[in-house]
Amino acid sequence: MADPELRRRVSRLVESFTCAYPKCRYVVTSRVVGYAGSARLGENYATTTVREFTIADVEQFLANWHRLSPSADVSR
Questions:
Q1: How many angstroms separate the CA atoms of 56 and 58, rounded?
Q2: Which of 23, 14, 2 is nearest to 45 (CA)?
Q3: Which of 1, 9, 37, 70 has its CA 20 to 30 A from that of 63?
Q4: CA-CA distances (angstroms) from residue 71 to 31, 37, 55, 67, 68?
């Protein structure tokens, strides 16, 4: 989402939703740059960073993506 205010609102909605259903587990993903400042989830939410892809990782990811993609079926 390009709009910082919309990102902030979505973060507050995620917080409200997870608080309304506290017995459930949640995983919220985002690019690091996307949710900083007021758009970041509150202090009760753990954050982590996935390591950067190597070129080999990118190649494997793309190969898997295209293999599993419905559009990969060229017989259609």
A1: 5
A2: 14
A3: 1
A4: 26, 39, 24, 9, 9
Using alpha carbons only, how large is the chain's radius of gyration in Å?
A: 17
pLDDT tens digits along 6-32: 989 999 999 999 999 999 999 988 877
Distance CA 72, CA 68 (A): 7
Instruction: Show the CA angle centred on residue 41, arms to residues 35 and 43, nearest 5°.
Output: 130
pTM of the predicted model over 0.85:
no
Which own/partner contact pairs does 10-16 have at CB distance under 8 Å and 24+ positions apart? 10/39, 11/35, 11/38, 11/39, 11/40, 11/41, 14/41, 15/41, 15/42, 15/45
